[in-house]
Specification:
- Helix 3 links the parallel strand 2 and strand 3.
- A 9-stranded mixed β-sheet has the order 6-5-4-3-2-1-10-11-12, with helices on both faces. Strands 7-8 form a two-stranded antiparallel ribbon. It has a two-stranded antiparallel ribbon with strand order 9-13.
- With 303 residues, the chain is α/β, with parallel strands linked by helices.
- It contains 9 helices and 13 strands.
- The chain has a single domain, classed as TIM Barrel.
């Protein structure tokens, strides 16, 4: 309950949230990845110093909760100095595959109370190419946990993996990876559209791994929604690409300038959603989003 309390307190404390796809550079080539397959050398730290990037956030006059997505963030040059500078005034959440040995240096740069969550992606098909017995993943998971960070694993429930998912979870649990989240696959496979067309058996497995009832795991087909839902996106919540270009959200591409060039100007208040065609898994703030992902995530903080 302590982890849950900390997570909620930090989340509520920070009115302003930035979802930052920091790079598309990755050492994995997951078949279900939404990023481009080519490895791109597109690092913002080769253009601006960590100090400049942090000061760009500071100049907004707001305290930010910054979510780092990739690519693999730990492969970025000067990533650790960047995290050090940002966490002087802001909190962070990082999604990482735990492959880089820079993970072992992380505690030297970032205090635990500035990290809301470390999400350790366990991409099993790519992971076993470089870490056949998963010992490196397990070692780094425990290293970060032992240093006091709130860390969870996550596992994409890609349809071809259902013959091994439960065994993989059992193996990780056996080796002390206590918290691991099943992440529903989003995309097409063999003519079926996921997560909407999981079989009953697959839904039972997801529910069991998430410690939920099967009735609680429901992925309805997306529906066109009415415009006009009052939303924080554009006011307190934003999406940013690797070079600092800020948009309202994944569904509404309205530009709010470039944070690192000093042209970022947010709305002064919440506004009505202008999309009208939101899919529930792309809307992070609107009422239309199902609570399934929230439930899957919440069970980790109740253990």
């Amino acid at each position: 309950m302590q982890n849950k309390k900390f997570y909620l307190e930090v989340s509520r404390k920070y009115k302003y949230k930035m979802l930052w796809t920091i790079s598309s550079h990755c050492n994995f080539n997951c078949v279900y990845c939404y990023n481009a397959k080519e490895i791109l050398d597109n690092f913002i730290t080769k253009i601006y110093t960590p100090e400049h990037i942090a000061e760009s956030f500071n100049k907004t006059g707001k305290s930010w909760l910054i979510f780092f997505l990739g690519g693999e963030p730990f492969l970025m040059p000067d990533f650790l100095p960047l995290m050090h500078e940002l966490t002087k005034k802001h909190h962070i959440q990082i999604s990482t595959n735990l492959c880089s040995d820079n993970v072992f240096k992380f505690p030297d740069y970032v205090p635990t109370d500035r990290v809301m969550l470390l999400s350790a992606s366990f991409h099993v098909l790519e992971r076993e190419k470089v870490d056949p017995d998963f010992s490196k993943y397990i070692e780094k998971y425990h290293f970060l946990k032992d240093h006091g960070y709130n860390i969870i694993g996550n596992y994409v429930t890609y349809p071809p993996l259902f013959n091994r998912i439960e065994k993989d979870f059992e193996y990780l649990h056996k080796h002390g990876v206590e918290k691991i989240m099943p992440i529903p696959y989003r995309g097409e496979f063999e003519g079926k559209h996921y997560p909407y067309e999981y079989s009953d058996q697959q839904l039972e497995i997801i529910a069991r791994l998430a410690d939920l009832k099967k009735s609680e795991v429901n992925f309805p087909w997306p529906q066109t929604t009415k415009k006009g839902i009052i939303c924080e996106a554009g006011h307190r919540y934003f999406t940013m690409d690797n070079f600092g270009n800020v948009i309202q959200c994944f569904s509404v591409k309205k530009s709010f300038g470039n944070l690192f060039e000093g042209t970022f100007i947010p709305n002064k208040r919440n506004t009505k959603c202008m999309s009208g065609s939101e899919e529930w898994y792309d809307c992070y703030l609107g009422k239309i989003r199902t609570n399934v992902f929230d439930k899957i995530g919440a069970f980790l903080h109740n253990k």
